[in-house]
Amino acid sequence: MDARAIITRIRNGISPRREELSWFAQGLASGRVSDAQAGAFAMAVLLKGLTEPARVALTLAMRDSGRVMAWDLPGPVVDKHSTGGIGDCVSLLLAPALAACGAFVPMISGRGLGHTGGTLDKLESIPGFHTDPDEASFRAQVARIGCAIIAASRDLAPADRRLYAIRDVSATVESLDLITASILSKKLAAGLDALVLDVKCGSGAFMKTRAEAEALAQSLVTTAQDAGCMTSALITDMEQPLVRSAGNALEVTEVMLALTGAAAGSRLVELTAQLGGEVLALAGLAADAGDGARRLRATIEGGQAAEIFGRMVRAQGGPGDFVEHWRDRLPAAAVVLEVPAPETGRLVALDGEQLGHAVVRLGGGRLHESDRLHHGVGLSDIALPGEAVTRGQPMARVHADSRGAALEAVAAVQRACRIGPQSAMPSQPPLILQRIG
Ligand code: URA
């Protein structure tokens, strides 16, 4: 086969054949396909689009470009994927809660991307926690405890690893077909029976509009189902942070409050229950999503999820007494400053993307791939849209490593807020905007 012929077909709007996409994905993984060819392929897909069967074929070809895990466990293997937002620490709560409900969760997660935080970075704020166990330890932990949260190994969907890096520098990240194949090739390589997707929509998400979020959710669900994985998606609100904190250790704090019963009824617990309910129902562990959500909430309220979280932390190198002593174990920033409200009135909007960038600049995320994170920095006590604020009174706290960095973040948070008159009550979108599946 010839890479040029495959690119020409796509460029001319002719659907590529399954075996051609398989050859191309193998070529990406082996290096037989050059960077120039990969860039041209990505641009042709972005401009012409793929048919649904071709998108499924590309996803499966990228999945099969590396190792595909198979499991033999006494329960279904499930996972969740989020498209990323501010204060989105659901994975840390959901993985142990699903395990407590009888599911097995080999969660392969990512690091911060752009203005959004990453699950691995959050977990690594726990002293000693490591996210790269060898395969035997990973498999044994999933079988023994029910969950593990780790980074993708190099042999998982290697075609995606290469294509993603090329898309990043060739203005081809935005293709729905390529985003779908990229996300799902890695998830399907983990050998899942069922998957739930959290597609975030709003100022703190990558998908700013409902139409964009719906198109991505539809593409992901159709492709995953066609590929044989039971899947549904929730489109969820990201016009405000999910919790009142943004930053690695600060979000672990929010998770620990939820796991220890101090956040019942919060948006974090509610979204975790709804996503978990979906996947428990898909996997046959609940009668329907409502029943699943109830079971999941019960494991959080009853302490079973906390117990499994503690075992997972210990198995992955963290302190054995983390659940009991998390307040003493998490890193704290050197400087904490209040963010005074610049005016009296009502907070009508909060630009989540600007908040996320403020956390990155504090050192909570990366500007360059090699940057080392400062796990204690970030924002806490963030006022949310609809709340009244008083000039000079705090509407958030900045946690920073230096006073200079803190003052810069204070100004950034003030710029991210729009304050209107007391009477200007913003419309409050529901947490779950839509279900697709
Ligand atoms: N996350 C991925 O893994 N791939 C994409 O293309 C976008 C987000």
TrEMBL record:
The lineage of its organism: Bacteria, Pseudomonadati, Pseudomonadota, Alphaproteobacteria, Rhodobacterales. Coiled coil: none annotated. Residues 346-420 form the Pyrimidine nucleoside phosphorylase C-terminal domain. Pathway: Pyrimidine metabolism; dTMP biosynthesis via salvage pathway; dTMP from thymine: step 1/2. Keywords: Glycosyltransferase, Transferase. It catalyses: thymidine + phosphate = 2-deoxy-alpha-D-ribose 1-phosphate + thymine. The gene is deoA. Belongs to the thymidine/pyrimidine-nucleoside phosphorylase family. Homodimer. Gene3D superfamilies: Nucleoside phosphorylase/phosphoribosyltransferase catalytic domain, Pyrimidine nucleoside phosphorylase-like, C-terminal domain, Transferase, Pyrimidine Nucleoside Phosphorylase, Chain C. This is Thymidine phosphorylase. Its EC number is 2.4.2.4. Pfam families: Glycos_trans_3N, Glycos_transf_3, PYNP_C. GO terms for molecular function: thymidine phosphorylase activity. SUPFAM superfamilies: Nucleoside phosphorylase/phosphoribosyltransferase catalytic domain (SSF52418), Nucleoside phosphorylase/phosphoribosyltransferase N-terminal domain (SSF47648), Pyrimidine nucleoside phosphorylase C-terminal domain (SSF54680). The enzymes which catalyze the reversible phosphorolysis of pyrimidine nucleosides are involved in the degradation of these compounds and in their utilization as carbon and energy sources, or in the rescue of pyrimidine bases for nucleotide synthesis. It comes from Pseudogemmobacter faecipullorum.
